[in-house]
């Protein structure tokens, strides 16, 4: 089955990057949300305006923080690897980490913090098990440069790449429950199977998980 | 206010005379001393709306006063936030009712050491009780009571003004919808206390200070106060700003004079800052207000845990610091942010890139103004205040 194109929450809502739209669709209206690595606040602005969430953002780049605060969003400059510990447990309904886990020094510790702060965590990441990646290494003999992984090995921020299966294994290791697992292509469109499906590890270019503490 | 570089601005209109409120009741100070009578000199700009919900309270810094915009009656220069406050500006007086009061202990009309002590009929001098940031804020709260304002839309201030903003948010969390401490801290650091002590000692070392009785004895400790100002002024700038502005350039001369005249431009500039300051500021006020800043410590009064000061706070915070500010460095603001995060408070935090040092909060810093504008507009929307008028093409 192929999922239909997603409808925005309101007719008046503008379109945001489609992978962010998937995240937005997973957040119930009125939730308390911490967007970790929120960039210029695109997702947060959407959630605040159209889903009436009580949202906060944390972002490393000061230029992006200024852009977000200049839109009136409650965003602070900080480093997710050192600053998440400041937040109390269960402070948010959802902690969100979009396309950033693979760039952290200690992904497992970050996941633990996300699940401590939020009752649920929404995590998305590029799948290093996608067939194009495998082909690149196997036949090209080189580190892959794809739509999802667009930087050369020497200047990529991605230091802890994983496959969908690796991620599922980590969830098992951490005793984390997977509530939803969405497989996406590079454009951010949903594939016709869940990210927990055996096909996802080979065919999905990115994946989106909703996690809770078991 | 420092102006490192010229900025063309239309000449502001002269400031209106200050309004004076005399409190009905004595003020019980943090020290336990009862002070009476207490007057609060203040200025207002803009119009209070029918719901009384559009008040912006501005808190001034150590040597500023209630003259935020317009030509200052003593200095003849523009008010300290003329860049930011006015019709169509970031703190838009067509949207907001802006109030700024001279702090308790000040010398521009609010009760301070140069006013007459009713018990003696002479100026208070050193008989004036030591006041704190909390006392300043308490007097402002009385002013808001008098104006019939239960809750302000925002309380905003830089430097010592930021300390008052923090105190407001902690002491009266239900009276402020948003708090914007700029280039501030939750406590005065050892280094800052040290600089203040140099200033106070300079004043007290001037024989003209006469143990604080200079007004009665018709003397003027202007040398001491000027030195205090010169030392403090260095802390308001950055090394880069000083180097760029002055370098080692000589003042109106071709060569070194092998003497102690102001050979260097930077010396001449500092002397000018010192001498012009004494015309508008009272030496004893300088002692009292610097002391109030030294005593400020929001963590200490919460068992050393700053976060405890903010438990359950409904206030929306926006902290802004400047990268080259070494008097109130970014790390101070970040400590407040961490404490606010610990109680999952609503907080925005931006460090603005600037080489202008601490004084950047008084200068034309577009990034700062843009950030402030965005935050104010965001909170205005949440508070149901009308949006900013569209800019004319």
Explain what you see.
The complex is a heterodimer of chains A (214) and B (393). Chain A is an alpha/beta fold and 214 residues long. Chain A has a single domain, classed as Rossmann fold (3-Layer(aba) Sandwich). Chain A is 31% helix and 24% strand. Chain A has 8 helices and 8 strands, in the order H-E-H-E-H-E-H-E-H-E-H-H-E-E-H-E. In chain A, strands 3-2-1-4-5-8-6-7 form an 8-stranded mixed β-sheet, sandwiched between helices. Chain A starts with 17 loop residues before the first helix and ends with a strand. Mean pLDDT of chain A is 91; it is low at 1-11. Chain B is α/β, with parallel strands linked by helices and 393 residues long. Chain B has 2 domains: 19-187 and 305-382, Alpha/Beta hydrolase fold, catalytic domain (Rossmann fold), CATH 3.40.50.1820; 201-289, Rna Polymerase Sigma Factor, Chain: A, CATH 1.10.1740.110. Chain B contains 9 helices and 14 strands. In chain B, strands 1-4-8-5-11-12-13-14 form an 8-stranded mixed β-sheet, with helices on both faces. Residues 1-8 of chain B have low confidence and may be disordered.
């Amino acid at each position: 089955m192929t999922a239909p194109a997603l409808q925005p929450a309101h007719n008046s809502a503008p379109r945001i990057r489609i992978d962010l739209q998937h995240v937005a669709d997973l957040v119930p209206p009125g939730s308390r949300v911490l967007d970790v690595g929120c960039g210029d606040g695109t997702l947060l602005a959407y959630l605040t305006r159209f889903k009436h969430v009580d949202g906060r953002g944390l972002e490393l780049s000061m230029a992006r923080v200024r852009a977000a605060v200049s839109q009136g969003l409650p965003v602070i400059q900080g480093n997710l690897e050192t600053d998440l510990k400041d937040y109390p447990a269960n402070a948010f309904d959802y902690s969100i980490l979009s396309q950033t886990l693979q760039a952290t020094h200690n992904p497992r510790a970050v996941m633990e913090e996300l699940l401590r702060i939020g009752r649920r965590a929404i995590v998305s990441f590029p799948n290093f098990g996608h067939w194009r990646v495998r082909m690149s290494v196997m036949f090209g003999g080189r580190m892959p440069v794809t739509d999802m992984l667009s930087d050369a090995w020497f200047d990529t921020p991605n230091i802890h790449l994983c496959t969908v299966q690796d991620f599922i294994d980590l969830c098992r290791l951490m005793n984390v429950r997977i509530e939803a697992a969405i497989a996406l292509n590079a454009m951010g469109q949903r594939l016709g199977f869940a990210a927990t499906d055996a096909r996802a590890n080979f065919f999905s270019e990115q994946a989106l998980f909703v996690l809770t503490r078991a | 206010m420092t102006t490192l570089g010229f900025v063309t601005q239309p000449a502001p209109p002269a400031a209106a005379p200050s309004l004076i409120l005399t409190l009905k009741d004595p003020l019980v100070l943090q020290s336990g001393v009862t002070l009476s009578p207490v007057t609060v000199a203040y200025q207002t700009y803009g119009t209070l709306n029918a719901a009384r919900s559009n008040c912006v309270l501005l808190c001034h810094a150590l040597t500023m006063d209630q003259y935020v915009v317009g030509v200052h009656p003593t200095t003849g220069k523009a008010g300290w936030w003329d860049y930011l406050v006015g019709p169509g500006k970031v703190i838009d007086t067509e949207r907001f009712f802006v109030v700024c009061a001279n702090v308790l202990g000040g010398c521009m009309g609010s009760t301070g050491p140069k006013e007459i002590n009713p018990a003696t009929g002479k100026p208070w001098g050193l008989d004036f009780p030591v006041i704190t940031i909390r006392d300043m804020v308490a007097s402002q709260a009385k002013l808001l009571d008098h104006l019939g304002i239960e809750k302000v839309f925002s309380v905003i201030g830089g430097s010592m003004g930021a300390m008052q903003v923090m105190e407001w948010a902690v002491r009266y969390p239900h009276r402020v919808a948003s708090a914007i401490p700029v280039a501030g801290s939750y406590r005065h650091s050892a280094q800052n206390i040290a600089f203040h002590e140099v200033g106070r000692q300079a004043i007290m070392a001037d024989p003209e200070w006469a143990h604080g009785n200079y007004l009665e004895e018709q003397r003027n400790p202007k040398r001491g106060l000027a030195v205090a100002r010169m030392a403090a002024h260095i802390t308001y700038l950055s090394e880069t700003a000083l180097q760029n502005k002055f370098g080692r350039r000589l003042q109106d001369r071709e060569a070194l004079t092998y003497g102690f005249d102001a050979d260097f431009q930077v010396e001449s500039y500092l002397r000018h800052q010192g001498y012009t300051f004494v015309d508008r500021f009272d030496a004893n006020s300088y002692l009292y207000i610097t002391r109030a800043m030294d005593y400020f410590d929001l963590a200490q009064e919460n068992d050393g845990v700053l976060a405890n000061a903010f438990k359950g706070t409904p206030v929306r915070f926006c902290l802004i610091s400047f990268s080259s500010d070494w008097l109130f460095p970014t790390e101070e603001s970040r400590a407040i942010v961490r404490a606010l995060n610990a109680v999952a408070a609503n907080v925005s935090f931006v460090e603005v890139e600037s080489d202008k040092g601490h004084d950047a909060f008084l200068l034309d810093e577009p990034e700062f103004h843009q950030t402030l504008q965005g935050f104010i507009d965001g909170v205005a929307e949440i508070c149901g205040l009308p949006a900013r008028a569209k800019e004319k093409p």
